[in-house]
Structure formats: structure tokens, C-alpha cells
Amino acid sequence: MQRRNYSGHTLASYRLDLQVFFAGVDTPLDQLSFRDVDRFIGHQHHKGLAPTTINRRLHALKHFFDCLIERQIVGGNPLKPSHVLRRGSTLPRRWTKEQIEQFFAQVQHAMDRALFLLMLRCGWRVSEVAQLKRRDIDWSQQALIIEQGKGRKDRRVSLSADAVTCLREGLKQRPSCMPSEQVCWNQKQPYRPLSITAIQKKMERYAKAAGIAASCQRVRQSLCLQQAGARRGDGVHQRAARACFNRLERAVGKGVESAGQTGLCEDHPESHATEQSLRVDFG
């Protein structure tokens, strides 16, 4: 995997997936069979894990055994093509304007508002928000630089006015004991940066208080669904939204610049329509 120049995050994820598998297996490495993989899949189902998560772990296991075969440590790969789980194709679901207002009514801390606005307005991933550093903020251009994001791509993202305001207010409250450059900090342990898991837990806690279903991924999808709504009037066409979300993913993969609230060009008329439809008063 190092020869293929995978990122450190990918390597850490593969390592964790392999640890999960081998933690529940007593069979020697060279005696593992497809039945061990069957039992592992059944155990993961019993824990309620999504097919996407299980398939990712199976993918890591397959590559691990392919490497062992190449080095002549084992004679075969216990993972078969039939082990890969079928996944349904679901349409993205968005927050309504009312749900956005309900959610942000619960978010009182300026830094918390800022990190969720980066997902809502700019389509940032939770991992990108967690890794944001002070040197990545270009205040003069009201933009952020993402260094080596998903796929080892750099990208520049313009900020909305409310995100800029919340970032400024949040940084005023940043503890001086924070040893790193990270913008977001753990409010219970101010000397530690905020982790991905902590951001996801914040999302769950605020959403539960607001009485709505939410996840970091749904916030990002709301951006694309609002874009589709701006194109088609009052009703949001779900398939158009899926296409819009896929275009955003491809744009992120290519490392192109995103714009402000919508991820569209600032001169594009749909940008302004979307901004108005997403506008929430955070004053």
C-alpha cells in the first residue's frame, strides 16, 4: 500500500479493519478459510454495521491476503467475490429550512456553529473540518485551503459571510493552552484538538436536542439538494440532487476550487438562489 502512495489516513483505516477481523479469529493465518470470513460477516451484521462498512473491511482483508500470497506466506485468499455484500442505491436526503433553524437554535458555541456551517455551506467532510489549521485560513480572500484532502488533493474553498463571522468569534475563544495549530478544540479537554468522533457526537447531541435526524453526511447532502432545488424551482428533484452530489464529489477529487455557500461559481445565478434558500440568521 505504501508503494501505491496511500495517505496516512487510509493506511490507519486499513490497519484498524484488519485488527477488527483478527481480534475475533483464533485460526492460524495459513489455515483461514472462507468459513472464517462468513462468521466475521455474520458477527458484523449482528453488531448492526452498514454494508458499506463491512465491505470496506472485506476490501482491506482481500488486499492483505493478496500481499501475503505475493510474498508466498499463504497459498490462497479466503475471501471470495460472493462475500461482498450487495448495496442498495439510496437517494440523498436534505434538511429543510425549518430543520436547519431548529438545529442551529441548539448550537450556542461559536466554534461549533462554524464547523457545522463549513459542512452546510461549503460541503466539507468531517475529517477536513477536524484537520483545519489556523494557517489554512486566508482572511483577506475569505477562503480556506485544504491541504492533501481525500485522494491527496489540495483545494481552495471560499467562505460564506456567516461562516467567517463564526470562525472569527470561535478563534477569540480558542484556549491558549492548545499546543497545535488546529482551529477546533475539545471543550472538555481544551489542550486537545477536536477529533472526528467528537464532531460526530456533537452532531448527534445537537440533532437529538432539536428533535431531528441528522448526520455530518446529511449536512453535506443538503448543500447539493438545495442546488438542485435552485435549478428546478420549489420542488427538489431527487435524481438531479444525486447527480449534483456526484459532481461535487468529482470536483473535490480533482482538487478544484469551490465557492462559498454552494460549491458553485460565485458568478453563477444559481449560487445566489441557493444562498437565499439556505440563509439562516445566526446573529
List the helices and strands and how they pair.
Layout: H1 8-23, H2 34-46, H3 51-70, H4 97-106, H5 110-122, H6 126-130, E1 137-138, E2 143-146, E3 155-158, H7 161-172, H8 196-210, H9 216-232, H10 238-254, H11 269-278
Short descriptors:
elongated; hpI Integrase, Chain A; mainly alpha; 283 residues; DNA polymerase, domain 1
Structure description:
The protein has 283 residues and is mainly alpha-helical. It has two domains: 8-83, DNA polymerase, domain 1, CATH 1.10.150; 97-278, hpI Integrase, Chain A (Orthogonal Bundle), CATH 1.10.443. Helices cover 52% and strands 4% of the residues. A three-stranded antiparallel beta sheet has the order 1-2-3, with no helix packed on it. Strand 1 (137-138) and strand 2 form a beta hairpin. Mean pLDDT is 76; it is low at 228-241 and 255-279.
Please provide a brief summary of the model:
With 283 residues, the protein is mainly alpha-helical.
